[in-house]
Structures are given as structure tokens and as C-alpha cells.
Backbone:
């Protein structure tokens, strides 16, 4: 995927944008937004500039102006790689979508691929692969014939699955993530795939794992139904979500990730003919020095 345009292409506009970032970092969000708007007068076709303006205006408390900036982003970037529609929903200027834009998820992880492992494991104390592997082993000592690692990323979950499976396949929306995973040499097959439109036509897997993936999916009915239909008899489905603290099924968080409730997970799994074997609450990582609570789930056909 083509990278997001970090530069406006106009030297003077970029200089004003840089000054705007300096003001923003100093805490003067209103002045930063005013200067950023001046940069966009010189480069009105800069989608990422409009998106950043919206963030500055949001921080300054000018939500109507922020909404207009994000609508301009969508006009210039209809696939919504910056995730402007999610920002509009979070400030109450659009309905909450049941899923994020696929282009946003792909662009996010393409950008994040090179620093992904170090950021999650070293800085954010990310432990989902470890928790999922433990939850799988708790169902009894077993070797799996074929495992699918959905949203495999750079292979952090795959590293935990490899010792317990004969064949390991990974799927991810990000080509850059797949490139990093391929370099680890732990997968028998890797494929670029969007879980919003998940299909699998290969042999029946007896294990499907999805580590920290569904917060970038939102509504889970479609993908869970497809996974249940693909699983071999007595196969396991192991996954994690961020726990929804409020009432409801799932909700978009300020992080632009979705959180899901226990009740919703049980409903979705039961509707697809899956039985819950374990559902445990864990601290899955840190975010801005605060623990993020998640749910570690294992289900079976």
C-alpha cells in the first residue's frame, strides 16, 4: 500500500506545519491549529494535513471545526487510511461504525511493522500470545495438525504456536507485517487477507488463533461464523479482545480500537455453534502507563 503522505509537497506549507507541531507540543493547541490551517491554505489537497488539523482542533476543544477537517480528509482520501471516520464517531459527529475502514487498519500496521515487536513487548508489556498459549495448553496436552494465525502480524503469536502444531499458516491485512513474519521462518504459509471479508477454503484447521485482532474488526458475527464453519470437529478457537468496561456489546474506544463485552462474546460464539471452554480476564498490556484489561477466550465446535 502507498504510504500516507507525511509531506504536503510544498516547502513553505511543510515549514508552517512543523511550526504548528512545535506549538502543539508546547501545549498551545489553538495557535497550532491556526498555523496548520495556514499551511493547508498553501496545500489544500494534503489529506494528512487536514487530518492532523482536526486532531489539533479537537485538542483545542473546537469540535465542529475538527469535524469539518476530518470530513475534508474523507473527501480527499475516500478509502480513509487516516481513520477520519473513526474520529468523527468518537466526537459524536457520525454514527459508530460496526467496523473500522480496512484501509485504515492496513495503513496503520504497514507503518507500525518495523517497530511492532519492540514497541509491544519491550515498552507495553504485551502478553497476549503467552496468555493464549497457556489457555490452549490448559485444554489438555495436544498436538494440532493445522493452525491458522489470524492477523498474524510479525509472528509473535506464531512463535508460541509453532511448537504445538504440524503446520502453521498466517493471515494478515498488512504486507509489511507479513514481510516481517516471513523473515522469522516460522510459518509454512502466509497470505494477505482482510478479516472483514474472511474466507478460508483450505483443509479444516483444528486450531484457529486471533491474538489482539478483533479490536480492529468491531462486529464479530461474520468472522466468527466463518471460523466456526472452517474448524475441524473438536477444533479450538483461541482469541483475545479488549474488555468493554461499559454496558453494551462492543464500542469504539478513544484509541480507535474496539472493546467487547463478555456477554456479547458468549452470544456470538453460541450463535455460531461454539462452546466456551475458558474465558479469563487478564491485563494484556500497558497503554499510557495504564493497564489494559482484556479477555482471553478458548472455544470449541
Residues:
Amino acid at each position: 500500500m502507498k504510504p500516507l503522505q507525511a509531506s504536503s509537497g510544498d516547502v513553505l506549507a511543510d515549514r508552517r506545519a512543523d511550526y504548528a507541531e512545535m506549538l502543539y507540543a508546547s501545549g498551545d493547541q489553538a495557535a497550532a491549529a491556526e498555523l496548520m490551517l495556514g499551511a493547508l491554505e498553501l496545500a489544500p489537497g494534503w489529506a494528512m494535513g487536514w487530518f492532523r488539523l482536526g486532531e489539533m482542533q479537537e485538542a483545542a476543544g473546537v469540535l465542529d471545526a475538527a469535524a469539518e477537517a476530518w470530513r475534508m480528509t474523507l473527501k480527499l482520501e475516500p478509502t480513509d487510511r487516516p481513520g477520519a471516520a473513526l474520529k468523527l464517531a468518537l466526537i459524536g459527529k457520525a454514527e459508530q461504525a460496526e467496523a473500522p475502514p480496512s484501509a485504515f487498519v492496513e495503513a496503520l500496521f504497514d507503518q507500525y511493522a518495523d517497530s511492532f515487536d519492540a514497541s509491544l513487548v519491550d515498552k507495553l508489556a504485551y502478553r497476549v500470545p503467552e496468555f493464549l498459549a497457556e489457555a490452549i495448553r490448559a485444554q489438555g496436552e495436544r498436538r494440532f495438525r493445522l493452525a491458522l494465525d489470524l492477523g498474524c502480524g510479525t509472528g509473535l503469536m506464531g512463535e508460541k504456536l509453532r511448537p504445538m502444531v504440524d503446520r502453521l499458516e498466517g493471515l494478515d491485512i498488512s504486507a509489511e507485517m507479513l514481510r516481517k513474519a516471513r523473515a522469522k521462518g516460522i510459518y509454512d504459509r502466509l497470505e494477505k487477507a482482510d478479516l472483514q471479508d474472511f474466507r478460508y477454503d483450505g483443509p479444516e484447521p483444528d486450531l484457529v488463533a486471533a491474538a489482539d485482532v478483533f479490536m480492529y474488526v468491531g462486529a464479530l458475527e461474520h468472522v466468527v461464523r466463518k471460523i466456526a464453519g472452517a474448524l475441524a470437529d473438536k477444533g479450538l478457537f483461541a482469541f483475545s479482545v479488549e474488555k468493554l468496561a461499559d454496558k453494551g456489546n462492543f464500542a469504539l474506544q478513544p484509541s480507535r480500537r474496539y472493546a467487547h463485552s463478555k456477554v456479547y462474546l458468549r452470544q456470538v460464539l453460541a450463535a455460531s455453534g461454539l462452546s466456551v471452554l475458558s474465558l479469563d480476564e487478564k491485563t494484556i498490556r500497558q497503554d499510557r502507563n495504564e493497564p489494559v484489561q482484556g479477555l482471553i477466550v478458548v472455544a470449541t465446535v
